[in-house]
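User: Reviewer 2 asked us to show a designed sequence for the structure in our supplementary figure. I'm pasting the structure tokens here. Could you produce the per-position amino acids so we can include them in the response letter?
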């Protein structure tokens, strides 16, 4: 994924997004290569997509595969940062779709 980061994103925005008690707003643009239909994964069958998502969430919660990876906006992140981001990211999308 292409990086979109600078000092402000790696410090202030990261802290606000991960640790202040705010709900992530709707309409925040995603990286262009992740947008569904223009670079991201195209939708398939809902049930199989849902099962894949559940599997990925379980794996994320039990592995450390993200260690050493750099978030494209927030830069280097601790395990705590990654887990917090994972929770907030899922919560954001579940709220979008009323789950």
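Assistant: Here is a per-position design you can include in the supplement:
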């Amino acid at each position: 994924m292409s990086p979109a980061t600078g000092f402000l994103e790696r410090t202030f925005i990261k802290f606000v997004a991960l640790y202040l008690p705010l709900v992530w707003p709707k309409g925040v643009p995603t990286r262009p290569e992740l947008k569904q239909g223009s670079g991201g994964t195209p939708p398939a069958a809902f049930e199989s997509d849902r099962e894949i998502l559940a599997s990925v969430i379980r794996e994320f919660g039990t592995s450390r595969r993200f260690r050493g990876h750099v978030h494209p906006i927030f830069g280097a992140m601790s395990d705590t940062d990654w887990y917090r981001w994972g929770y907030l990211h899922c919560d954001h999308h579940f709220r979008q779709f009323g789950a």
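For the response letter, you might also mention the following. The first helix runs from residue 7 to 19. Helices lie at 7-19, 46-62, 79-96.
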